[in-house]
Amino acid sequence: MDEWAFIDWVKIYLERSGRDERVVTGVGDDMAVVRAGRETLLLGSDMLVEGVHFDLGGTSPEQVGRKALGVCLSDCAAMAGRPLAALVSLSKPRVMSMSVVERVYHGLARMARDFGCTIVGGDTCGGSSQLVIDVSLLGVADGVEPVLRSGAKAGDWLYVTGRLGGSILGRHTDFVPRVQEGRWLAEKLPVHAMIDLSDGLSTDVGHVCRASGVAAEFDEARLVDAASEAARTLADRDGRSVLEHVLNDGEDFELLAAIGAEPEELPELPGNLALRAVGRMVEGEGAWIVRADGNRNALRSGGYKHF
User: How far is 294 from 262, CA to CA, in rounded Å?
Assistant: First the structure.
């Protein structure tokens, strides 16, 4: 059973156990959606483990803290939410200096301040062999209906914010969560589904397809055009194609949005938002790539899996 099969099992098991009617969306989206009186709350968490998500030999403690909160903020962006408060739990190796942990919190605090989010508590323990940080985020809809993965329709265009691939050269720790961009898209455009690109485009688009009951069809040339300079640099170094890096590198932390608007119908975008059309949602199942020669090939998930 791989990671995604396990998550599906958890979702089915918990749904059989029943859930409160105020829970709109539970397991299976970027964040859970819960109605609480007049408020719509967004709840999510992410865990970072040393040796899996970061290496302190090449990443500063401040960057680790920044990333720990940033991955949660990226999930909030995909829901078009506004971050409100966070809980931070940390397990410290016995051999690690407290000054390292303090620097991690400096990074967390700066990221929280930049996005108007308050760190309100958490938990600590010691004795582990690796540094582990778990962040739980509370967001609010704040007048914008949350965007789920399950609303994509055949005919929607697929757009990405920013450029993709090559994150290992630096962006995986220095990315900017697209919180403002996600809210702008949901307010101004008919966004039917959205997801943040953390595990790689080839993997993450599959979540949207399965949740929405439609297929995705990417244009090869448009995908290559969306490649970052880092993706092109890596392609020159390792012999893999630029397209492979765009599809599978992961940790882009950009948004993939299914929008019911043609590229030429888009309004003028704010200066901080780059939006690139890369494909369409179509009837059917799975994800596909239309090659330059017109051939249509199945897209296999090649992004990161924990198990």
Answer: 21
